[in-house]
Amino acid sequence: MTRARAFLEAAVPMNELQATITDLSHDGKGVARIDGKAVFVSGALLGEEVKLRIRKRHRHYDEAEVVELLTRSPHRVEPRCRHFGQCGGCSLQHLDAASQIEVKQRVLKDNFERIGKVEPALWLPPLTDEPWGYRRKGRLSVRSVAKKGRVLVGFREESNPRFVADISQCEVVHPAIGPKIGLLAELISGMDAASDIPQIEFAAGDDVVALVFRHMSPLSERDRDALIAFGKEHGFAIYLQPGSVSSVHPLWPEHPRLAFRIPSGDAAYDDVELEFRPLDFVQVNAGMNQRMMARAMELLDPQPGDRVLDLFCGLGNFTLPIARRVAEVVGVEGEHGLVERAAENAARNGITHARFEVANLFEDQRQAHWARQPWDTLLLDPPRAGADKVLEYLPHKETKRIVYVSCHPGSLARDAGILVQKHGFRLSAAGVMDMFPHTAHVESIALFER
Fold first, then answer.
1. Which end of the chain is more exposed for a tag (fewer CB within 10 A), N or C?
2. What pLDDT was estimated at residue 14?
3. 116 secondary structure, DSSP code
4. Is the peptide bond before 395 cis (omega within 30 degrees of 0)?
5. If you classify domain 16-76 with CATH, what class do you get?
């Protein structure tokens, strides 16, 4: 960084300015333009007139916070969480639920138009579910703060992600955990290893809620006893993580069982139950996962004779329910442990029409046996980077239908352009799914047909 730019970013005047919010950014901040320069304003909504304070300057944009609302949006609501604005876990609690969905649908539409140069023939109605206490998986940061004389547990601060927000509860985290964040802070404050625990990961199954304590030094017997007592008192399974992900192991009870069920939605088919480990990837919103599964089945329209390829399959969240209805389904995933557990879940559920392969789908796999086979239908559920590497060699001409589940509208839009312009599909339908209420995160689903 040049000396001039360093000075530019460090010089933060405290003067207050007045502006009109003309847009919302991808992360839920209000957007204003002052002297032709974009200003991203935390806590402001579209159409509001605000008095703001610049808190950080950059060469091409500035960051600001609201000092005073001069006019209020009719869609502004009182945030339910008293930590909103300080904690960076949510960015849209001050916007009513209907408007949150509209914002996300607009983001998806804009990405399709701008990046993919496509538009769906049909906009699907948005999928929504319970907006509070929905988050069954996540990571809480832990920081021992000498100046405060105690430990903080929570998400990162909205204004400064280097710091842990000082919170006592969370309204969007699973109700077994959200109200007890302050108790977790008290627990760690009294431990010998209070300065050596950087994070706690949580994962909730249908019957068991697990806490994974990462610790940078061996725990004393006193600390282990304190963790076991906490787990017993509050009904948590306690895991320890002294090193890498592979080091995670249960402290109490000896053999906890994490699992969740996916209803079939059809009396002709049995439900599926998936067992998982606490650091495995699962969809964070259990209710939305069930609604998403129902929509995916509707769009896939699986037939008894179909052969289906499920890419980025993880634990088999889509693979196994699909396998109940088709002749064959193959799930492909890059993480070996997830593939092992997917196969175990298939056997546990008595599913014989599914098999699983390990493959890095960000590398060329066109010579793999599964990549050279004809498939009637593809299901794609990639991470944020999308599936463009796969779309260099798939789908084959035999594939008539693709369902694409996306956690990033930009990569979905790019891949939609590839499917339409290179492979001859049409974007038949698309819509958003509110997997992360009160955040700007956009989850969506799209159907492509020949």
1. N
2. 55
3. I
4. yes
5. mainly beta
State phi, psi for 260 to the nearest 5 degrees: -145, 155
Q: Is 349 labeled as ligand-binding?
A: no
Among the listed residues 64, 118, 185, 407, the single catalytic one is: 407
CB 316 within 8 A of CB 292: no
Q: Is 312 annotated as a binding residue?
A: yes
Are 20 and 43 within 8 A, CB to CB?
Answer: no
Indicate where the chain has its CATH 2.40.50.140 domain(s): 16-76
Q: Has 313 been labeled as part of a binding site?
A: no
Q: What is the pLDDT of residue 12?
A: 43
Q: What are the strands of the beta sheet with 249-252, ordered from one edge?
A: 150-154, 137-145, 199-204, 209-214, 236-241, 249-252
What crossing angle do the helices spanning 221-234 and 181-189 adopt, rounded to 10°?
Answer: 160
Tell me: is residue 15 an annotated ligand-binding position: no
pTM score above 0.85? yes
At residue 8 the predicted structure's pLDDT band, cuts being 50, 70 and 90, is: very low
Query: Which amino acid is residue 368, in one-letter code?
Result: A
Provide the strand spans (E) within 185-285.
199-204, 209-214, 236-241, 249-252, 259-262, 272-275
- Within 10 angstroms of residue 173's Cβ, the number of other Cβ atoms is 25
120-150 pLDDT per residue, tens: 999 999 999 999 999 999 999 999 998 888 9
Task: Specify the pLDDT at position 4.
Answer: 42
Average pLDDT value for residue range 266-272: 88
> Strand ranges (DSSP E) for 341-414?
354-358, 377-380, 401-406
Q: Where in the chain is the domain with CATH 3.40.50.150?
A: 102-130+283-449
Q: Are 431 and 443 in contact (CB under 8 A)?
A: no
CATH of domain 102-130+283-449: 3.40.50.150
Does 360 belong to an annotated binding site?
yes
Chain region(s) in the chain for CATH 2.40.50.1070: 137-204+209-252
Q: Which of 2.40.50.1070, 1.10.260.40, 3.40.50.11600, 3.40.50.300 would CATH assign to domain 137-204+209-252?
A: 2.40.50.1070
Residues in the chain: 450
Instruction: Give the residue ranges of DSSP H helices in 134-216.
Output: 181-189
The yes-or-no answer on residue 313 being catalytic is no
Token pair for residue 230? 């906490």
